[in-house]
Task: inverse folding
């Protein structure tokens, strides 16, 4: 890693290509123009689907013209989706399922993450390994046996059945992510509480819980998004119970036998996507670091 | 924080070491079982809803498990017949395996290369433009797979999609083309969808790594006469080896499991047998044909493939950190 700099300056001075220089020095117009083009192209590529979704949702003549702005702006698609389309019910179902999932999985994840972050006990490494491994299991492998299990419990077509499954799906990542937040709370704070005569439970409530709360919020948002976006299990477990559909599968009701109502589909997609985007921007940093937690040290 | 706690209270020190559980000696029984009390609810959920189903899917895969067996709950063992059928089927070797593996390799390659390029671009931008571009990237990342897929389907729609409109407007094609019937164009759209959704994670993670590379190293290399390419491959890449390993392995796992992005496309739910991948094949055999045993066998195959990759992932992580 040690780079010898003694002999270096000579070739650097001779080098007659200032355009190649980057970093702190001034950049040539060519480099700046190239960067500007790259930024514009990147912005168009990343934002076009979102933009096109919005344009189609607000355009009465979605897809009939070739314009890239709404030809005749309207809110009609949203009105149709929420009233006649029955999307209000799907939204309520999704909210119920997602909130129940958040409550249960956050509580379980918090308790488990305290155990693995704060205690040294036999089997701890195995527990962490298990948590890491189960995240990789493909949903397609779980959907068959869980369909049978949920059927045996007579929960097919119910929101409860979905919540049970989503808690399990959100739990491993929640434990993994919260573990980092718990570990970041200085042990000295806990010890000070014990010196004051606090019991473990008292310390947990008054010291650990408030300090881990931001991590809990981030984990909750992640669980919310998991439940909100999930598609395979909703489709399989809810079957024909249309009144219990969540937003992810409720969208399919706007697909016709021969032609699709694209304006309505895009309006409904907008309603689904916006809350997720807002949440995402709120937790973006923690999400990125949570995914690679442990592997990448900042 | 510490100052808000009155430290003067003369509580017994033995008690703190017992309840804290950081010291190996002097633990009370309560302190010893406390971690397990905390873990039990979560482990119970994982065991019942993730581990037991994995055992079950393996058991189903050795049975001719159809509707009668689901209703009666009785086993119907047929040994390895399901696997024999899978491995001798034309469908697996000609269609499903290439669709799964070749697609995953291409998708991972494109995602990682593109994401890294974006990270390098981001690192060279000023604060304002970096914020603008990162926010746009977040929007792409936040798009749920379901709605994202519908938007791409809509863009490439045969009759009214904007892609066909533009091509016709430019005079590049005379009549609308249905891009979803051909296997290659179908997967080209899936690739676009998956890369669009997957590159932000790579870009954000690699950017974090790039910003952590010591400036002195880069300056020293530049003084030594290394050009930008040389600096990138000889200085930055070795520094970020660990990050690249994690990013590549996670992307591989995700791209092997692609499901909604294919299932929701026209013909992707099983009616077009040319575009099946392992996940969709397993699902349509199970829930479309009621051949749950056969579908379970395909799922086992997919799980084993992923398990091998996962073991690599866990090893990479363990190398870096003592758990």
Result:
């Amino acid at each position: 890693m040690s780079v010898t700099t003694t002999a270096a300056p000579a070739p650097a001075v001779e080098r007659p290509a200032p355009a190649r220089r980057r970093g702190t020095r001034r950049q040539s117009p060519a480099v700046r123009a190239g960067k500007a083009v790259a930024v514009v192209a990147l912005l168009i590529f990343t934002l076009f689907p979102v933009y096109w979704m919005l344009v189609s949702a607000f355009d009465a003549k979605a897809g009939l013209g070739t314009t890239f702005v709404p030809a005749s702006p309207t809110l009609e698609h949203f009105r149709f989706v929420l009233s006649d389309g029955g999307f209000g019910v799907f939204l309520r179902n999704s909210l119920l399922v997602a909130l129940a999932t958040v409550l249960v999985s956050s509580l379980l994840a918090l308790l488990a993450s305290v155990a693995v972050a704060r205690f040294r006990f036999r089997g701890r490494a195995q527990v962490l390994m298990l948590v890491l491994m189960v995240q990789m299991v493909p949903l397609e492998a779980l959907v068959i046996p869980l369909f049978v299990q949920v059927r045996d419990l007579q929960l097919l077509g119910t929101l409860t059945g979905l919540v049970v499954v989503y808690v399990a799906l959100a739990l491993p990542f929640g434990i993994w992510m919260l573990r980092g937040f718990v570990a970041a709370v200085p042990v000295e704070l806990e010890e000070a509480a014990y010196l004051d005569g606090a019991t473990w439970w008292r310390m947990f409530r008054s010291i650990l819980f408030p300090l881990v709360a931001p991590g809990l919020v981030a984990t909750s948002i992640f669980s919310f998004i998991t439940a909100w976006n999930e598609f395979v299990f909703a489709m399989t477990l809810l079957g024909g119970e249309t009144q219990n559909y969540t937003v992810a599968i409720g969208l399919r009701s706007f697909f016709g036998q021969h032609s699709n109502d694209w304006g309505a589909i895009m309006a409904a997609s907008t309603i689904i996507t916006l809350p997720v985007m807002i949440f995402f921007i709120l937790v973006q940093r923690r999400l990125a670091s949570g995914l690679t937690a442990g592997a990448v040290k900042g | 924080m510490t100052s808000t706690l009155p430290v003067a209270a003369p509580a017994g020190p033995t008690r703190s070491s017992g309840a804290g559980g950081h010291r190996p000696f002097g633990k009370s029984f309560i302190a010893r079982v406390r971690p397990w009390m905390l873990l039990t609810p979560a482990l119970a959920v994982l065991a019942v809803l993730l581990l037991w189903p994995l055992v079950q899917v393996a058991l189903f895969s050795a049975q001719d498990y159809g509707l009668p067996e689901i209703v009666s709950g009785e086993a119907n063992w047929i040994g390895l017949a399901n696997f024999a059928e899978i491995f001798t089927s034309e469908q697996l070797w000609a269609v499903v395996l290439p669709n799964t593996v070749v697609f995953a390799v291409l998708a991972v390659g494109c995602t990682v290369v593109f994401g890294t390029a974006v990270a390098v671009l981001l690192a060279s931008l000023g604060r304002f433009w970096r914020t603008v571009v990162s926010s746009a990237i977040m929007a792409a990342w936040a798009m749920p797979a379901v709605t994202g897929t519908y938007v791409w389907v809509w863009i490439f729609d045969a009759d009214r999609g904007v892609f066909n409109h533009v091509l016709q407007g430019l005079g590049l094609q005379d009549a609308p083309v249905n891009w979803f019937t051909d296997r290659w164009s179908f997967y080209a759209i899936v690739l676009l969808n998956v890369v669009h959704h997957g590159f932000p994670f790579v870009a954000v993670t690699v950017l974090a790594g790039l910003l952590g590379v010591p400036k002195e190293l880069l300056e020293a290399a530049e003084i030594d006469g290394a050009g930008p390419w040389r600096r990138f491959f000889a200085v930055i890449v070795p520094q970020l080896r660990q990050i690249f390993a994690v990013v590549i392995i996670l992307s591989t796992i995700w791209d092997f499991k692609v499901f909604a992005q294919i299932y929701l496309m026209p013909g992707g739910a099983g009616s077009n047998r040319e575009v099946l991948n392992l996940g969709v094949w397993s699902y349509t055999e199970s829930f479309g044909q009621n051949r749950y045993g056969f579908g379970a066998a395909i799922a086992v195959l997919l799980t084993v493939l992923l398990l091998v990759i996962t073991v690599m992932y866990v090893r990479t992580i363990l190398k870096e950190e003592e758990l």
About this structure: Residues 126 and 251 of chain A are 41 Å apart (CA to CA).
